[in-house]
Amino acid sequence: MSNFTKSIMYSGIVLVAGLIAVFSIYENMDAKTEAQLGSIAPAAGEESVMETTGDVEAVTQDAVEGAEAAAEEATDAATVAEDAAEDAAVAADAATDAAVEATEAAEEATDAAAEADAAVDAAEEATEEHTEEHAH
Q: Nearest 5°: phi and psi at 52?
């Protein structure tokens, strides 16, 4: 698994763990209704307590579902990125092979040019020798 994929997975896990921690702390606060603003006792009459547990559970559930969906999308994105990296590695291997072949072809061309140069030199020497023999 590439470092990018590991990073995305770690970020998703940290995000989900953080959301779970925040909502569990919020749930624990609901258990102590006497310490919240929703249970302020009026100056006269009965105590007024607001029921927020259902709303918190719905928000918590929505947040968890959203975090799970985000983690799944991050995993899908990481998979796509990993596939793209593998394709790039294959393309890089092909480019390396092509470069090696081009280098070999260049070496062969250099050798052929050297042989042609040697042949030209030999032809010039033969011409000079032939000219000197006929000049005497």
A: -115, 0
d(CA 53, CA 59): 10
47 token code pair:
């105590």
Contact 49, 40 (CB under 8 A): no
Q: Does the predicted model carry a pTM greater than 0.70?
A: no
pLDDT digits (tens, 9 = 90+) for 63-97: 888 888 888 888 888 888 888 888 888 888 888 88
Q: What is the 3-state secondary structure (H, E, C) of the chain?
A: CCHHHHHHHHHHHHHHHHHHHHHHHHHHHHHCHHHCHHHCCCCCCCCCCCCCHHHHHHHHHHHHHHHHHHHHHHHHHHHHHHHHHHHHHHHHHHHHHHHHHHHHHHHHHHHHHHHHHHHHHHHHHHHHHHHHHHHC
